[in-house]
Amino acid sequence: MKPFAGSMSIPGWSRIYAGKVHDMYIPVDQQWHAGNETMLVVASDRISVQDRVVPTVIPGKGKLLTTLAMWWFERLDDIVHNHFTGAQVPAEVAGRAMIVRRLRMYPVECTVAGYMTDTMLDEYQKTGTVNGIELPAGLREGDRLPSPIFLPARKGAVEADDVDITFDEFSYIVGADAARLIRRISLAIYERGHEVCMETGIVLATCKLEFGSSADAGDHEIILADEVLTPDSATLWLKDDYVPGRSQTAMGKQFVRRWLASTGWDRNAGTPPPPLPHHLVTATLERYQTVVKMLTETK
């Protein structure tokens, strides 16, 4: 499969933003959209780990992300409306792009955690808390939490770190009413996703969500944006291999993060991540494909 690094020119569209994985375009005429607030979101094959873009792409990953995001949008629409409006996209990005509603995005990422992951464990062992939230003593890596917790972060730019924030800080950024509603929606998405994933043989340990609202004055409806419950935006473990108290079989980009950690790479050292070996690219793609198949092909 030919890799797609993104950042390409598309007739009829102007690229306005290149993110860590997704590129965003606006129409230059009326050919591809019905209204002035439409965007084209293209999922590249780039992979971002610990807020750094890895210099090796995973061929076909963007198409898998797009397929799964649209699948989840349909199954979560009774909880929250989303920005997806259509899949009739230019041929150059067929299968890896969506026509979406242009939103006023909240500059935050909303993580919900239902299990103790390796990235949460260090803070918990030192303080008994995760992002300031107190948790019971004695939890191990992989243990299910008493109840899911909401962990907001302020978004960083490309190649910049996201910054964990408290719920009070989150409320200050988005407004108190919006903060409470976003937290409630996020927890509901996680609960639905966890139920569906468990039925198909996957443990949904955490998920990362992004939201926006209409650019129209006075319209404050919360809209789910970006992607949702994909191997890029969620921590997914293989249920058959799940054993609390140890590292789990990672089915998303955590698999790549573990390899990077084994190389000694330090994201704070100012050096880019090393290229991924071919066998790791192949294994990562196979895990993404397995997740999509397990979810979308289950009766």
UniProtKB/TrEMBL annotation:
<dbReference type="GO" id="GO:0005737">
    <property type="term" value="C:cytoplasm"/>
</dbReference>
<protein>
    <recommendedName>
        <fullName>Phosphoribosylaminoimidazole-succinocarboxamide synthase</fullName>
        <ecNumber>6.3.2.6</ecNumber>
    </recommendedName>
</protein>
<dbReference type="Pfam" id="PF01259">
    <property type="entry name" value="SAICAR_synt"/>
</dbReference>
<dbReference type="InterPro" id="IPR028923">
    <property type="entry name" value="SAICAR_synt/ADE2_N"/>
</dbReference>
<feature type="domain" description="SAICAR synthetase/ADE2 N-terminal">
    <location>
        <begin position="16"/>
        <end position="269"/>
    </location>
</feature>
<keyword id="KW-0658">Purine biosynthesis</keyword>
<dbReference type="GO" id="GO:0006189">
    <property type="term" value="P:'de novo' IMP biosynthetic process"/>
</dbReference>
<comment type="similarity">
    <text>Belongs to the SAICAR synthetase family.</text>
</comment>
<dbReference type="GO" id="GO:0005524">
    <property type="term" value="F:ATP binding"/>
</dbReference>
<keyword id="KW-0547">Nucleotide-binding</keyword>
<keyword id="KW-0436">Ligase</keyword>
<keyword id="KW-0067">ATP-binding</keyword>
<dbReference type="GO" id="GO:0004639">
    <property type="term" value="F:phosphoribosylaminoimidazolesuccinocarboxamide synthase activity"/>
</dbReference>
<comment type="pathway">
    <text>Purine metabolism; IMP biosynthesis via de novo pathway; 5-amino-1-(5-phospho-D-ribosyl)imidazole-4-carboxamide from 5-amino-1-(5-phospho-D-ribosyl)imidazole-4-carboxylate: step 1/2.</text>
</comment>
